[in-house]
Fold this sequence. Notes:
Blueprint: H1 10-25, H2 32-39, H3 43-49, H4 53-72, H5 74-78, H6 84-96, H7 100-109, H8 111-120, H9 126-144, H10 154-169, H11 179-189
Helix pairs in contact: 1-2, 2-3, 4-8, 4-9, 6-9, 6-11, 9-10, 10-11
Amino acid sequence: MPTGVALRDVREQLFDAADRILLRSGPEALTSRAVTVGAGCAKGVLHRHFTDFDTFLTEYVLDRSTRMDAQVLFLREAAGTGTVAGNVAAALTALFDSVAVAIVALVTFRDGLRARLRETWPAGIPVLTRAAEILADYLEDERARGRIAATADPATLGAILIGTAHLLHADRTGPAPTPDDLLRTVMAIIPSVGPR
């Protein structure tokens, strides 16, 4: 990129480039040089906006955790509509069709990133932990409406659903589970009180 050309929303350009690299080539290919080339800017641009590459990665992961919220927050409005299993399966599909699985690999791959995340995010991987919380809130709403068993533990179910869906989606090179596969899995996990 020529010197002196103003970039708009540099952070988002860099984060989008990181998404593309992660999805295409995995965490080992995610370097500061690859990100700046992918964003179409000079390497110095990244370092003008972030102290170092681990700071960039930390802010990237936290940003994508917040963005992921929009992909599963529709559950708040879905309570009491459709089927519980169908709503959960749709949320899990939206989550795992995003960059979430690649972010899990990134956090696992980079020790420095994990250490930085622990400073602000005490447990788990932000993308998955936040999604489990959103699922738990949704399931609590459905339990209050009598659409899942009164004895259900929404927090535990949220964690189980995220873990199971992650296992189904973890192999980025193989075929993703079909919507029917995911729906059957969700139906096996959530204790129903009536027709699903």
